[in-house]
Amino acid sequence: MRIFLFVIIYVSVGDEENDGGDEEYQNLHDEELDILKNLKSHKTEDIQKGQDIKNQMIHWDKTLEKMTLLHKVYSSSNNLPQEP
């Protein structure tokens, strides 16, 4: 008997607090679905961008390495004897 009364009280309180809650929940759910669709549709583009950035970083590292090697050569050339 107590359980039955508890259920009735819970349902009546739940109905009073449910002023537009279902509508808000549905709106949030729809927004989440839109975001997921957007992420799935741009998946290949994002993968390509990631690979391009990775390649760019590799090229930049190689360029810096070559610059440091050239700097050593130029610095050494300053130590060569100069013509009078």
TrEMBL record:
Keyword check for Kinase: no
What are the boundaries of the signal sequence? 1-16
Tell me the ranges covered by the AATF leucine zipper-containing domain, including all copies: 46-83
Determine if Cell inner membrane is one of this entry's keywords: no
UniProt keywords, alphabetically: Signal
Q: Which domain of life is it from?
A: Eukaryota
The residues that cross the membrane are none
According to its UniProt record, what is one Pfam family this protein matches?
AATF-Che1
GO CC aspect terms: nucleolus
Q: What is this protein called?
A: AATF leucine zipper-containing domain-containing protein
Q: Which organism is it from?
A: Kingdonia uniflora
